[in-house]
Design brief:
Structural class: alpha+beta
Shape: globular
CATH architecture of the largest domain: Beta Barrel
Number of strands: 30
Radius of gyration: 28 Å
CATH topology of the largest domain: Thrombin, subunit H
CATH class of the largest domain: Mainly Beta
Helix content: 10-25%
Largest sheet: 6 strands, antiparallel, barrel
Number of domains: 4
Mean pLDDT: 83
Distance between the termini: 79 Å
Strand content: over 45%
Amino acid sequence: MNRIRENKRYILLTILGLTFFYIVQLMNVLYYPNEINIVKGENRSIDISFPFSLNILEEDNIIVQSTYNESRFGGFKKNYTIDGIQTGGVQFQLKLLGIIPIKKLDVNVVERPHLVPGGNALGVRINTKGVLVVAVTDILGIDGKRYSPAREAGIKAGDTILEINNVKVKDAEHVVDLLNQVKDKKVKILIERNKNQFETKVTPVKSMQDNCYRLGIWVRDRTAGIGTLTFYDKESKAFGALGHGITDMDTGNLLNIEHGKITGAKIANIEQGKRGSPGEIRGIFYETEKVMGQITKNSPYGIFGFVEDEFIKFNNKKPIPIGFKEEVKEGKAYILTTVDDDKVEKFEIEILKAQPQQYPSGKSMTIRITDKDLLRKTGGIVQGMSGSPIIQNGKLIGAVTHVFVNDPTKGYGIYIEWMIEQLSNQQQLEKN
């Protein structure tokens, strides 16, 4: 009787163990990327454990060639090798027991892009589209009473004022001019909020402070700062920088830009990063005739635009291949950045973790500065280094984006794919 109980116990434990094992395998399958890129002429290996299998949906395709081999674990695991024959896309199907479809896997065979890595210190100047409302306040009218016309009209901090009475707003001074033309008559305001536009009406109030007609708002129409160039393409002249978007310091909103430019910058001094206090690179912008390029897009994953021919000739660097997110490995890498004058230098880092991301994020990998010279100069990652290109095994794989406030030697980087995707989206819009 005891032996029967023991046998039942072993059988139950075995069933539970196998169930747990296959649940883990199922979770791994479900979290496997929905899409992978393979460079033409290269291959990718994928390990699939029993009871799952990988099958191509288009047997007669000429884009990829798929083979598999059983691993050293015997029939419990198969290693699939997918060779990229020519550019294009095909679909694979992950199946349970070779019958039940679990998920589809899109495989794209692509040419490997080559880009010129940056590292140059940039002066960034942008003008917003319309004006950004950073605060809504009361107005002391000439009658001594307090009014809040903007608040009553539903205008909030973070809104963008695009038009007043169908006239496009250029800057903060233009707002004052337009309001003083209509005086105390009701005006129509075109607002943009969270990418949606709507109209509201408001009556300006004459302020006791300066006898000007106002709405009771503080606005911002431009901003400037220091950052780092990530890459540019010699053929299209397109560039990407920062690795994150430019946001308003008061509202935290991504700035909706009308136009902007990048200029050369010279490092003036560096405030070292310390635990609990991120450091900062302070730079001096060159004269306006030293414009490096024009900014056309401000996205959550960087700023983008086109560099000038003069800068390409002056920079005279060679393009290098990019590394896709699946190729990024934990271990040694290096960044290019500027911390002395206007000299781009190479500094060693370590990639501590690479996230298996399916969707864009500015926190793709965790990095640590290991270079003693850079640690001595900056204490780690400091403001102004955002956009510094990350290079591993001769490939451009990403850019520095954030610093850990409690440990400035560590921070985040973004995969270069996410930045290129933003650039591709922009170019597609321009074609349309």
